[in-house]
């Protein structure tokens, strides 16, 4: 591992720090998206809400970083993962493909899909291997959020569509 300094850009989000807190923006992502679609030269439209409009009572007091982030996502920082795998899906080498995607506060933050390194003997084994990758990702997200000061308040959920793989995971 090496220290890359303060976080500036992560998952399409620009991060800026000031004495008032941490502020996140997707300006660069939006500009890149507009450039990619050929809409960079379009004129902005007026919004129907007045500038600096207070959306709820009590917004005059200085919020904490966690409150600012929770207002941004609109809910708590619940972390949820979903995994799936096929069995022997590759015709050439009979290896399975597994994948996962994870949500933080209802927002998709990571996803992954890859052919497994070994040939699974059953669909259950392929699903279990996929769950193992998903659990590693969820643990990484939980540690990252904790380091940023946003420790998840609820247990992390992992969803899998294979009852046998779930039963194996629950059996110590």
UniProtKB/TrEMBL annotation:
> Which PANTHER family does the UniProt entry name for this protein?
GAG-POL-RELATED RETROTRANSPOSON (PTHR11439), INTEGRASE CATALYTIC DOMAIN-CONTAINING PROTEIN (PTHR11439:SF467)
Q: What is the name listed in the Swiss-Prot or TrEMBL entry for this protein?
A: Uncharacterized protein LOC110746808
This chain's source organism reads Prunus avium
Q: Which gene encodes it?
A: LOC110746808
């Amino acid at each position: 591992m090496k220290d890359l300094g303060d976080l500036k850009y992560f998952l399409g989000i620009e991060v800026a720090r000031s004495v008032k807190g941490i502020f996140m923006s997707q300006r660069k992502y939006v500009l890149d998206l507009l450039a990619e679609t050929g809409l960079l030269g379009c004129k902005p439209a007026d919004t129907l809400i007045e500038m600096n409009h207070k959306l709820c009572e009590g917004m005059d007091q200085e919020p904490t970083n966690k409150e600012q982030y929770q207002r941004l996502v609109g809910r708590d920082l619940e972390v949820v993962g979903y995994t799936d795998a096929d069995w022997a899906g590759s015709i050439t080498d009979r290896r399975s493909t597994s994948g996962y995607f994870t949500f933080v506060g209802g927002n998709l933050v990571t996803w992954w899909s890859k052919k497994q390194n070994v040939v699974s003997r059953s669909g259950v084994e392929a699903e279990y291997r996929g769950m193992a990758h998903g659990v590693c990702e969820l643990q990484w997200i939980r540690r990252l959020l904790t380091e940023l000061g946003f420790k998840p308040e609820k247990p992390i959920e992992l969803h899998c569509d294979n009852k046998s793989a779930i039963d194996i995971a629950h059996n110590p």
